[in-house]
Amino acid sequence: MPDERLAVREARPPSAGAPLLATALARSFELVAGIALFALVATAAVVVMVPSSAASRVAFAVELVFLGLALVVLALLLSRRSAHAVSQPLHVLDGALVAIASGDLAVRVHLPGAAAEIQFVGESVNTMVVELARLRIVEAERTKDQRVRRELTEVVHASLDLDRVVQRAVDVIGDALEVDRVHIRLRERDCGRLAAEWLRSAEVVPVRSVSPTDELFALIHLTGITDDGRAVVIDDALDPERFRIEQRDAFEESSVRAALSCPIVVGGRVDGVLVASEQRAPRAWTGGEVTLMEGFAREIGRALDHARAFELQHQMVERLGLLDRFKNDFLAEVSRELRGPLSSVLGYIELLTDESAESVSDEQRRMLKVVERSGEKLLVLISNLLVMSRLEAGTFAPTLAPVDVEGMVRRVCDAVAPTATQGELLVDVNLEPGLELVADEAQVERALHNLMVNAVKFTPAGGRIDISTRSDHDQVVIAVRDTGIGVADDEQDELFSRFFSAKTGSRRETLGAGLGLYIVKQIVDGHDGNVGVMSMQGRGTTVTMRFPAESRGSHESHLLGRRRP
Amino acid sequence: MSLIFLVDDDPDVRDLVEYKLVQSGHQVLCATNGQDALVLVPEARPALLLLDVMMPGISGFDVLEQLRAREATKSLPIIMLTAKAQDADTARGFTLGANDYVFKPFSPRELMSRVNLHLVPDG
Questions:
Q1: How far is the CA of A8 from the CAs of A101, A108, A120, A130, in angstroms?
Q2: Does A368 touch chain B (CB under 8 A)?
Q3: pTM of the model
Q4: B105 to A379: CB separation less than 8 angstroms, yes or no
Q5: Which one-letter DSSP state was computed for residue A35?
Q6: Where residue A456 sits, what CATH number does that domain have?
Q7: pLDDT exceeds 50 at position A120
Q8: Which of A339, A351, A399 faces B105 most closely, judged by CB atoms?
Q9: pLDDT value at residue A544
């Protein structure tokens, strides 16, 4: 393709040329010959006119001087001419080099009359300029290539929305290749969905109007695209030597005269095609253009891969979220549903033990107590399940109000007293009087209740449980110490995790759903407090909860934020 | 002796509550769902209504809302029986005009003390 950047302007001197040395010799020869001629003429004059008188001698001398002067002028003229013959081409060369240096690569040196050596230098300069101009074009193309690639890479990585990516891609490619049409088809089930199209102008026939829903890439079959990632280059779709009549017809129907078709390969399978096409005229695609298109197709393949992976991940996350919600709803529902039957169980036991006291034997009463205790244990488990489902759903925000710590501890002690008595445990309460706490009373009570239930559960008969409360600077400290079986050192860190189940045999036997301490920790965390455990196996356990006396009220965001980012 | 109306879909809970109420000397009428309650309660004109929240069809909250909208039952003392121990639910019930809440599983003793509390005006 002719490039106007290669248009030539000639720099030529006015004179004709001969070898530099020969020119210099000729000029010197002319000078010497002039002087010789002068000498010859002078001698001849002296011989012919032989002046004897002084006057004639003077006249002769004057003539001789004039003649000498004339010869000097002649010599000067001659030398100027020879100097001009050398300096003029050099001047032209100088001018051309200055122009080249300033970036004008259209300059050409032309020195028809100059010496052969100077002409040789001139030709070398011309060769250099041509090479320079070629390099500049290559460089410009490479820069454009890089820019286009960069743009495309940006497009590909800017978004995971596939339709946007492919549309931006055809825009960039259309601008870069200056073709009539660029389009992308992507595999969708067994069809090639037209995913994006770019048209140079309104006169170009859009692909969607020609074949809106083609069979599985008619083009693949038509042009023989394979999964090797290589472009199929069609300079002229109507070339009878290359394409059969039905192929040519198909091209004509699709308004394709020249095309570059690249497979978009994802995971070793052709999952789409990228096609740049000319509608009317054939086009000799350059190697650079082919490479560029293949690069584009690779990038788009990568984008497709990313987008699909992202989509899959997105679906997975959604499904997991849905499952999580199902699970929470299920937990809430189950814990509610279980309360109904428990109402009857515990209610009737109360009626039996309260009102039929006379007709119930001691043995039966003992049995009824077991049923009642079991029912109450079930109730604790169910409550914990409900609390957990609310924690998981992020709807367990504490409602803050002043809490009478002493009253709360007494209530919890009353609640566990029957079980403690049954287990022959001594419960000792050591309270700082008048202690107050700003917290969610029901939640803190639940936490303390869970700790007490654990202490009772894991302390063998004859043991003791101490509950103490005190203020420590701006914190309220509530501790439950037991002389129970304790927790192994390596298990203490996991103690507050969900569904913790101790390896210790005796502990496992009595453990419930493993939610009690998890809920304690969630409640204390929700109040910006902290909970710690000190335990020695076989000696006992102390669990200490610390609450800020004046709560800072960040609980809601803490709990909600944990689950619902 | 007062007439107390009980709405609950669980027959065992109905039996338990009815037994306790009758034992305490009250008269008891029952409905097993919200639809029946909306028809029967205004006719029966009880002194107090024990109303379960979670029932198939019309929920206890809906029954509560509709009864409060009627002149005959506008100021009828209503105690909700619920397994929903969530604050938001309690708040909703009170907003709709419930007089009290008893959470399942409840102690019959505790239920009776609540009933007696609301049967005595200003008590």
A1: 16, 6, 18, 10
A2: no
A3: 0.50
A4: yes
A5: H
A6: 3.30.565.10
A7: yes
A8: A339
A9: 94
Domains and CATH numbers, chain B: 3-119 (3.40.50.2300)
CB spacing of A351 vs B16 below 8 angstroms: yes
* Strand, helix or coil for residue A558: helix
pLDDT at A6: 47
Q: Do A351 and B13 touch (CB under 8 A)?
A: no
Closest Cα in chain B, distance from residue A322 (Å): 22
Phi, psi (deg, nearest 5) at residue A461 = -50, 140
Task: Tell me if the bond preceding A548 is cis, omega within 30° of 0.
Answer: no
Which pLDDT does position A507 carry in this prediction? Answer: 45
Q: Is residue A337 part of a domain?
A: no
Q: B97 in helix, strand or coil?
A: coil
pLDDT at B122 (0 to 100): 42
Q: Domain boundary at A303, A331, A366, which? A: A303
Confidence (pLDDT) at B63: 93
The band of A70, judged by pLDDT with boundaries at 50, 70 and 90, is confident
Query: Is residue A126 domain-shared with residue A179, that is, in the same domain?
Result: no
Q: Residue A229 sits in which domain range?
A: 158-303
Q: List the structure tokens of A230.
A: 């290589």
Chains A & B: contacts with CB separation below 8 Å: 58
Check: CB of residue A258 under 8 Å from CB of residue A269. Answer: no
Q: How far apart are CA A530 and CA A527, in angstroms?
A: 8
Chain A positions in Cβ-Cβ contact with residue B16 (cut-off 8 Å): 343-344, 347-348, 351
Q: Residue A334's closest chain B neighbor by CA?
A: B83
Q: Residue A294 is inside which H or E element, if any?
A: helix A287-355
How far away is chain B from the Cα of A191, in angstroms, using its nearest Cα? 49
Pick from A2-16, A166-180, A225-239, B34-48: least confident: A2-16
Cβ contact A355–B16 (<8 Å): no
Give the pLDDT mean for A361-390: 83
pLDDT given for residue A51 in this prediction = 57
pLDDT at position A374 over 90: no
Here the ipTM equals 0.81
Confidence of residue A64 (pLDDT cuts 50, 70, 90): confident
CB spacing of A346 vs B105 below 8 angstroms? yes
Final residue in a domain of this structure, among A264, A280, A303: A303
Claim to verify: residue A412 and residue A559 sit in the same structural domain: yes
Hey, is the C-beta of B106 within 8 angstroms of any chain A C-beta?
Answer: yes
Q: Could you say which of A347, A375, A395 has the minimum Cβ distance to residue B108?
A: A347
Residues A507 and A559: beta-carbon distance below 8 Å: no
A351 touches chain B (CB under 8 A): yes
Q: CB of B24 within 8 Å of any CB in chain A?
A: no
